[in-house]
Amino acid sequence: MPVAAHSIRDAATGSTAVLVLEGELDLAAAPLLRARVDEATDAGGGLVLDLRRATFIDSAVLKELLRARSELAARDARLVLVGVPSPIRRLLDLTRTSELFDDAPNVESALRRLGA
User: Is the pLDDT assigned to residue 4 strictly greater than 80?
Assistant: First the structure.
């Protein structure tokens, strides 16, 4: 079995969950992303997704981002995307979903937006 072309890991920040997404995140990564988002947001509060090292997301991962945003909003919490690369920004623009997400240039800015 080949090595995964992606990774999703926690970045320690205190009370606000930060997940770092790296590489090509496609249908194979979507279930892991869903599980990690659910784990990270179980305690409540906002979520930061650091995409600076992500090179690609497909529609399955976009669906998980939209699901996470919706579920957090239902709990009066927010999702902030960090460092969205051009190819991913293009997907968000083409699907007209970019305006649904808050974004920040770095994790520190994202945490400030969440009041963390």
Answer: no
Domain that holds residue 81: 6-113
The Cα–Cα gap between 86 and 102 comes to: 16
CA atoms of 37 and 65, how far apart (whole Å): 9
Residue 2 pLDDT greater than 90, yes or no? no
CB within 8 Å of 104: residues ≥ 6 apart? 48, 80, 81, 82, 83, 110, 113
CA 32 to each of CA 93, 99, 114: distance values in angstroms, whole numbers, following the listed order = 25, 25, 24
Q: Is the per-residue pLDDT at 100 higher than 80?
A: yes
Q: Is residue 12 part of a domain?
A: yes
Q: Does residue 14 lie in a domain region?
A: yes
In CATH, what number is assigned to the domain containing residue 11? Answer: 3.30.750.24
